[in-house]
Model the fold of this input.
Amino acid sequence: MSTSPENPDRALLAWAKDRYPIGKFAEWAKHKTVPVGRGAFWYYFGGISLFLFLIQVGTGILLMFYYKGSADTAFESVRFISAKVPFGWLIRSVHAWSANLMILSVFIHMFSVFFMRAYRKPRELTWISGLVLLALLLGFGFSGYLLPWNELAFFATKVGTDIVGVIPVIGEPIMYVLRGGEDVTGSTLPRFFALHVAFFPALLTVFIAAHLFFIQMQGIHEPEAWEAHPEQRKTMPFFPHFFMRELLLWLITLNIVAVLAVFFPAELGIEADPFSSAPAGIKPEWYFLSTFEFLKYMPAHVGPLEGEEFGLLLISLGFLLWCLVPWIDRGRSRRITTIVMVTGVAILVFLTILTYLGFAA
Amino acid sequence: MTKLLTMALVTLGMALASGALADDLPGGKCLECHLTVDDGVGELWEDDIHARAGIGCDACHGGDSMQDHSDLAKRSGTGYQGELSAREIVSSCGGCHSDVEYMKERKPLLPVDQLEKYWTSEHGKLLVKGETRVAQCVSCHGAHGVREVNDAKSPVYATNVPATCGGCHGDAEYMSDFDIKTDQYDEYVQSVHGKALLEKNDVRGAPACNDCHGNHGAAPPSIDAITNICGTCHSYNAELFLGSPLAPAFKEKSLADCVACHGKHLIRHVAEEWEGEKPGSTCRKCHEEGEEGSDLALYFTETFGSVRLAFDDIEQLLGEVEVKGMDVTEGEDYVEAARQGLMQARTLMHAFSKPVMEEKVSEISANQAAALEVGYAALQGLKDRRRGLAISTLLLLLLTLGVAIKIRTLPPFD
Done:
């Protein structure tokens, strides 16, 4: 390989190879494979989620150039971003849309992992770290929703933190810390801003690293049928074959985000007024609608518990069982596997119906 | 036997209850009796401002409220007056309320000129002549349940005044001997003032009957007083009118300034009256077609009409682009400024000067033009966004195509 100035690319590569184990990395990438088969399409959603997260980071940093996170200035600064900053409307809309698509993509990723039973040994911790990532992303969404400081977000945050306050014993102190007082006020906004741009990103980075580390260590889950019929085993190299296909989907995703941002830009509404009464039709973001709707259907009291407490208890137990799925279904009993899979379908249908009812309400 | 016992217990309970109430309120034995009879006096007295101030029945009615039996309480020598006549009511209320020293100690901020004003009112003048059907203190304030004027339950609270006055003045039979109209209340409730007070509950801004006619000195205002009365609230309108060429002309023809154009009790929104059957119909009551006044009326009509139409166009444009996600806040600010200008122009009309109006209209037009500019810029921005999207989609498509071709050229796996 020439290192002459006439071939600067090669010169740079040689320079890097001289200092870093690039050859080993190239060798690793060449031998890393991804299963090919009926469910292979669903493998791409992990990467799409990561891509959307990177868009979030990029647009989020750009928004921070102009955003002012206090109750007096937040709304006007977002209005300024949308109306005056060159391409500010685009950055904000892309940030909002990619957030929503990211959560959708993560849900698809989670259910595809579930239905492919990719949570089983040895990937229990990959499953758990994925669920933690989902929880953190929901926290991202909840904290980010308040930041424009508009009326809808203000009251949705009030309702959301009210729900947190229902949790026995720890609920009220958590609600107090989140709100910065007894109620959602101007003190709440800086807290949510700090959570959104510092606390959640720090935790998310750790868990994304752990999640990816587990995947690299253990490889991508292969269909169960291959265990009995190894002759059916078919894989493709991660690089460049899988990578190029992932890139193709990233480009399509980017275009979808752009179309959504142009045709349905993020709205701002009217500025929050803590002293005004709540407008009709307050709803949370779509990914909280099923929880919101579920709690609405709870009776006033269930035994010694209040309806909302009981509802939250059920949701918490459900989430705990969802976390424990790798230990419940270890692949030793066909009956248990069937029950778990049927339950998964039921949960998916249940969440879809509740979300639809929430939209229609 | 059981029935008798029950009755005795009920009677005892009532006596004890009335006794307890009577202990708290002035009125002594009078109140104890009146709480047991069904004349409503006792109940009304509970809420009466005088009762709460410690003033007893004897202050107005005389008598001896310490006596257990009514015959003894009302016996001669106690000054008992019973039900007061209209004239006696005025004297009785006025006796205290016009006593500066007495009122200074009890309600120092309350005026003490009610009685003096009352005698200058049409009501007071007729009472002096012996007409007892006229309004006196009790007719408006009530007798035993007198409340503070700012108490919403008081018949003289702002929103209750029209109904209180209308109670007599809207009763054609009651008013038949007085030779005055009885449609004031019906007209007032349809007027801008009536709607503001009674529908929007604008107790601070909208006038009730007493705000124009006076309270205790109620009388129809004279022609010369009209501008001052309306000008109390519409001060700039009055100032402009008095400085306009119309003021001396109205005086010469004995026209009642504001009332001549706007009417009395049925004052409607200007646009409704103004446009009428013909443009500038209000002015055409006096100005023939072709006169300078008629031309000015036409100018005002056309100007206001075109300004209003422009608002429709602007709002349609801004609404259209806003629905498509464009920020038009700046345009809405210009619209708001133009609307403020239109409101000011309505006031400036009272100068009856074309140059003055032209100046204001040019300011309104400038704001409307700026709003339109924001709307068109947003529309253009929308087109630019979509053009940009088309270009970026094309680029992304080419890139996607490139990647797809690259994938197809990759060596086959497994």
